[in-house]
Amino acid sequence: MTDQSYYSATMRDRTEREALRGEIVADIVVIGGGFTGVNTALELAQRGYSVVLLEAERIGWGATGRNGGQVTGSLSGDTTLRKHLTPRIGAEAAADFVWGMRWQGHDIIRERVARYGIECDLVHGHLHAAWRESDMKELRDFAAEAARRGMGDAVVMLDRDGVQDALETPLYDGGLLNRNNMHLHPLDLCRGEAKAAESLGVRLFEKSPVTRIVPGDHPVVETASGRVTADTVVLCGGAYHRLEAEALGGRLFPAALGNMATEPLPAEEARAINPQNLAVYDTRFVLDYYRLTADRRVLFGGGANYSGKATADIAGELRPALERTFPRLAGIGIDFAWSGQAGIIPNRVPMLGRTGPNIWYAQGYSGHGIATSHIVAGIMAEAVASTMERFDHFASVPHAKNPFGERVGQGLLALGMWWYRLREMAWIR
Ligand SMILES: Cc1cc2nc3c(=O)[nH]c(=O)nc-3n(C[C@H](O)[C@H](O)[C@H](O)COP(=O)(O)OP(=O)(O)OC[C@H]3O[C@@H](n4cnc5c(N)ncnc54)[C@H](O)[C@@H]3O)c2cc1C
Prior knowledge:
Helix content is about 35%, strand content about 25%. The protein has about 425 residues and is an alpha/beta fold.
């Protein structure tokens, strides 16, 4: 087994870019080459700006190239955001805004894949599986809202038998089948989007960790071997950066999430366990999520380590959950196991804001960022180009600063998460 991710082992585009050397000038410099940074750069280039993007490692190296690949309508912090917006714009507009935020990312991804011919194994179909009977109410309420808002047959409730027709598992009391949700190879998507951004004139530099942002009318972004002078900086370093520490430190908690991919399944076995090729996650707070890859591996993730450090034996920790889900896979070989850092925000609302008049940031999707990052990229680009309304909806949400320092704060978060886990373990069948 390797600690390389399934995605980096199988990615189609292996382009390597130069590191930044010397001094250059641009309208905008974007820091971070994940979904948020690449798509912000792309959207800004579409609006006619000259854009430089600096990535510390390789394009898609962070959470973007390590995730479960599930494109769902999960918007983290949705209830808090809706409550926050209600006195500002009214209950109906707040509910519409939050509902739109769930689905616009799907359209952006579909459009980008089609327009730029990005091969990323995109498949429609997702099941939100009820871990216990009492979770069905929340799913039914969601299905009712989807129906009211015209999603029609795309969203369907399944009872226990319906779920067992869709998945060969003894778990789950029912579920919500969503045919608008998708799953895909996220690293291929991001690298395809990076190529698209380059085709629009964005200059991408890899192996270029930014060490400092010098504020000013024309802020300067420094790496070990170069500098970019720009009018605007957009910081999209996710859970991996420590830049702008005075303003941003202690507001985002990195959580190490593990993933693994089995050896490829024979076609008939893959069909038996998941005949509709659905991506799945369950209704717990600390949930299991899984799907089949294009080459018929089970890609399985779950649990979370909120200490900020990766677990040594990811496959060992995940295997019992995989075998509980699909008993016929007991003893199956695991070819890949890896982890990535998700940015957890205590109130779970994505953090968008500015640390100065021309230094912007977007981060923290609390483990649900594929669709959201695509929407946020558009919001950042339109804000930089001076349409602030959607940006302000997020930027006005207060985010408390952890007063205890990174280590103690991370420990408290880990404790809180263990409490949720213990409560949920009481339901283990
Ligand atoms: C294991 C795992 C599973 C997940 N599963 C799902 C899922 O199934 N569905 C879903 O919707 N979401 C999922 N997520 C969340 C999703 O992957 C993220 O929300 C999303 O990818 C965040 O994108 P980003 O561009 O903001 O951050 P990242 O992808 O982390 O990108 C940040 C980039 O910034 C770079 N960087 C950092 N500091 C610097 C610096 N100083 N200079 C230059 N570059 C820098 C990093 O190298 C990195 O490439 C998962 C996350 C993890 C970790």
